[in-house]
Amino acid sequence: MKHLFFAGALALFSLPALASPANSFAFGAPAAAAKADRSVEIIMGDMYYAPRSLQVKAGETVRFVLINKGAVAHEFSLGDAAMHARHQQEMIAMQGQMDHAAMGHGSMQHGAMMKHDDPNTVMVAPGKRAELTWTFTQATPIEFACNVPGHYQAGMVGELIIGQ
């Protein structure tokens, strides 16, 4: 039974990689922190980000310093609303797999073990810090959001405007 769970989890984690080329996003690409033009600190609380909106320029490389001051794990993910909707469905599927595996062995911390390797996303444990550095290439509005099930719907989303 354990082997089936791990095989299913591996297949689920592989789906995003098969859907599009690695590091291919219309609004930009991951970058090395040393290449950043500036750093922006973002506080992650339980169901909020501070600041709630950001403005960057096309061609700018930004190092996001993420500080989770909340009681549960939160995610920082860059993308448009459609991308976040797809990611939320993946997160719900991961949660369902974890719930099935736990089968009554106590509840897991909300967001725990929902890890993946999407280059536009970072999961941050409570009380921890993480970083994501990104070069924005195209002037377009996107969002930064937490796609842990229920968090986006509770208002954990911010506006990121990529200007000229």
UniProtKB/TrEMBL annotation:
Task: Reply yes or no: does the keyword Lyase apply.
Answer: no
Keywords, sorted A to Z: Copper, Metal-binding, Signal
Superkingdom of this protein's organism: Bacteria
Q: Please report the stretch or stretches of sequence annotated as the Blue (type 1) copper domain.
A: 39-162
Carries keyword Disulfide bond? Answer: no
The molecular function terms in GO held by this entry are: copper ion binding; electron transfer activity
Signal peptide stretch: 1-19
Please identify the protein, giving its name as recorded.
Copper-binding protein
Q: Give the organism, scientific name.
A: Pseudomonas alkylphenolica
